[in-house]
Structure formats: C-alpha cells, structure tokens
Amino acid sequence: MLDIKFIRENKDLIALAIKNKKVKEKVDLDKMIALFDERQNLKKEIDELNHKRNEAARQRLIEEGSRLKKELAELEKKFEAVSQKFMSLMLLIPNVPSPDTPVGEDETHNKVLRQWGTPRQFDFQPKNHMGLGVSLGLINNERAALVSGTRFSYLKGDLVLMQFALINYAFSILTNKKKLEEIAQAAGLNIKVTPFVPIIPPVMIKPAVLNRMARLEPRDERYHIPTDDLYLIGSAEHSIGPMHMDETFEEADLPVRYVGYSTAFRREAGSYGKDTHGIFRVHQFDKMEMETFCLPENSFQEQEFLVAIQEYLVKSLNLPYQAVILCTGDMGLPDYRQIDIETWMPGEGKYRETHSADLVTSFQPRRLNTKVKRSDPSAGGAGDRAEPVHMNDATVFAGRTLIAILENYQCADGTVEIPEVLRSYMGKNSIGHER
Predict the structure, then answer these.
(1) Name one GO cellular component term (predicted).
(2) Fold of 107-431
C-alpha cells in the first residue's frame, strides 16, 4: 500500500503505474482522495464530539450527554462506511515500478541484464527432464494423476535425495557469514552482512493476513479451505512476511534475514494447456525462499545482494543462466522491481525462469504495519520516529532447479551426473539406471 500523501502528490505517476501494470480494476483516484478527505473530516467531528461528551459528563449534563452519544454513534457508523469504501480503492493501487523497469505488455518485453555460462552442445539427442525422469524411475506423473489429478507428481529415489541435497547445500551457504561476505564483496556491495535465520513456516494462512501481504489476489490461483477459512500458501514468503506485522524494529537490529523452506501450492488456473508435460508447472512443489527486512535506504542493494546469492548458487551448479529485469506488464501488484534468473533448459532449447527476486519497498510493510524506529541523536530522543521498513523476497531453490540439473547433466548412456557441490550430500557422483 502506498502513502496517501505520496498518491496525492504523484497522481499522474500512480495513474501510469495502474495502466502499465495492467491492473484489471481501474481506480478513480479523485474519488479515492475525496473519500480520504471525507474520512478525515468525520474523524475530526468524532474527536470534537468525544470532547463535548467528556465535558457534559464532567458537568453531569445527562440529557446533553445522551444526545451527544446518539449523534456520535451515527457519525461513527458513517465513518466506518466511508473508511471501507476508501480502503477498498486504496488496496487496488499497485506499487510504482522502479525507474529502470521496462514498460511492456508481457514477458516478451522483459530485458536481459547479463548472461553467464555457455549452453552445452550435446553429441547425442538430449532428452527433456520427463524423459529422463521416467527412464530412471525418478518421476511418476501417471500414478499421481490417479491419486490426485493432473499437475501432480511422485518424485522418487535419487531425485528426492537431490532435492534435499540442494536444501542442505543452500542452508550451508545462507547461514555462513563468511561465505555471504565473500558473495557481497564479489558483487561490489557495501552492506551489513548477517546470516539468514532458517524457518519452516505455516503452510496455511488467514485470508486477511494474505491480503495484508498483497498476495490474496488473484484468488482463483489459491487453494482455499472453506471450513476453516484458510488459504494454502503459494510460497514461504507468504507466511514469513507477516511474522513481524504490527511490530516495530530497532534500527540497529536491521537487516533481519530469513530463509524458509515449505511446500507451495498453486492452482495454476490461468495457465490452462501451458507446460502440462513434466514437473515444470505443478500444483504442489517444495521451495526455499529468502525474506528480508531492511532500512529503506538499503533496500535496492539488499535486492542486489539476494540476486548475487542466487547467481552464486546457480553458478556453483555450473548451470548456464541469464538475469532478466521484468517489465511492468509481467510484474506483481506489490513489486517495485523484479529480477528473474532464467536457467538454460536443453530439453526445450531455451532459458526458463527458475528464480525470482522481488523488491517491494514499503508496499507490504505499510499494509502489515511493520516499522522501524529511527532516531535523531542530535535531538536527544525527541526526534525519534517510526517509518515502514522495506522488504525483499527471493527464491533460493525450487523444483525447477531439479529440471535444469537433469537436463544439463545428462549423459549419452542415459545416466545423469551429479553437480560436484552436491556429491558429498548424496554420497555418489551420478544417477544410473538402477531402481
């Protein structure tokens, strides 16, 4: 959610963001501002009536107090109605994109920032991940379809061990301050480095809280449990982000960084007929996610730090990739700036998205009421103030990394080599034909 003062002073910029982000429900900014002004006037009237009631009570003017009480109840009812109308419009306004975000309709207008690695040239016809998964007994979609329906999978054997190898490997990097300092230094970032705190978050979330995260919509993409009025999360950040709602950090305690591991659930309602083969786009998958809280002036570098971690991890797996900045039409409502890592998939002969890094600035924190207390030493404490923190989230590893490894590390005899950094975790160098 944006600050109403910022909206007032930048109406043209907000209108452009609504247009470029393709917000389905266009917001009447003039009406929203008028509702805010009406709300403020009603609040002033309510405060004045409360003062008069207190005076009447002090003077024991019973009839006057009774009249004021009725008048106050009517005003409070009107205030609540106006507040609801105002907030319903306010919550539709997207975050303003960063100056370097390309303007465009869809993913075809995203901009490649850099590439690393050279796609492998095979001396045999490479298989896609599903062909490898079936032949090696690692993936079974047919049985999963009988049990749960389409877009579900059984992962088996060494592919399961590889997933947990990735998780353990990532935790070893993200909890290692020295390694993180090396990554930050290599990226030319002058930031305060702290280890990430591992988290296993709840996979169910209240709709009101998911709405405060600005991730409730589109609801048709979410799994809902009506009996308990809970939603299944689509990413660990959905329930890690609200951990500090209605809290105020001390300035010295920031940044706070978490790395969460959870199962993620997505209905993929808007992707009918898209990526139906294999495990690229499924309803259930496991995912590691970084979520950080930092000072506003540091949030851009914080995103760059998270992207540097992503790139370090993908490079260490020796997977060719490209870093892409998303255009306005491909971004989410709360995102100020979004960087994707697209990894080379030999089975398709193209780069596909495996990682995202979202800088949401104060958009989510303002809705969550997550703040930081800033101090002015020269004011002797009198200058202390609270302002929204800034938040970032970014993928560590998800199921698509397994796809990239299978396809890039396949051999002519049908086996799959294991990336060197994962071998100690799996206790072997390759995945063979054994069942």
Answers:
(1) cytoplasm
(2) BirA Bifunctional Protein; domain 2 (3.30.930)
Tell me the pTM. Answer: 0.92
- Of 215, 337, 367, 400, catalytic: 400
> From CA 398, how far away is CA 423, in angstroms rounded?
19
Which of 239, 262, 299, 356 is catalytic? The answer is 356
Residue 238 and residue 257: Cα distance in Å, rounded? Answer: 15
Q: Which of 151, 215, 266, 366 is catalytic?
A: 266
CA atoms within 13 A of residue 299's CA, in its CB half-sphere: 26
Q: Consult the annotation and say whether 148 binds a ligand.
A: no
Q: Is 235 annotated as catalytic? A: no
Look at residue 274 in the predicted model and tell me its pLDDT: 72
pLDDT of residue 432: 86
430 annotated binding-site participant:
no
Asked if residue 45 belongs to a known ligand binding site, the reply is no
Q: Catalytic site residue 58?
A: no
Q: Give tens-digit pLDDT for 242-287.
A: 999 999 999 999 999 999 999 999 998 766 667 678 899 999 999 9
Catalytic residue status for 353? yes
* CATH fold of the domain at 4-90: Helix Hairpins (1.10.287)
Is residue 316 annotated as involved in ligand binding? Answer: no
pLDDT of 435 higher than 60: no
238 is in an annotated binding site: no
Among the options 8, 281, 352, 423, which is catalytic? Answer: 281
